[in-house]
Amino acid sequence: xxxxxxxxxxxxxxxxxxxxxxLADIEQRMMKVxxxxxxxxxxxxxxxxxxxxxxxxxxxxxxxxxxFATATxxxxxxxxxxxxxxxxxxxxxxxxxxxxxxxxxxxxxxPGRSTENRIRGSGSRGPGARGDRSGDS
Length: 137
Prior knowledge:
The protein is mainly alpha-helical. The chain has a domain at 13-103. 56% of the residues lie in helices and 3% in strands.
């Protein structure tokens, strides 16, 4: 039998079990770093989790340069990398604002979650809400 030639495309293809384990590890570490950054930005921690963050960046970078056995696996890896990139942009932006002194915890939170809305209460209803009789005579 003729021997197969290995090209650059087939070298470094990762199997599904190894990659799924690595993805589970990266996702778990990502959530751990996310919680640590949340605690830091809310003032519960004094030091940002930069060591864990750098380790996570290295692990994600290691996933980018390899090929994958199936399209499903490639999709999982790419979506995990995309999610990490979103977190990375958020954390880097918040760290910069925190260092510049312009970061205010809680600013930009979802509407209805601030203390002002809780103090005002739920007595103000918009038009069309139950009990709104402005259209009746």
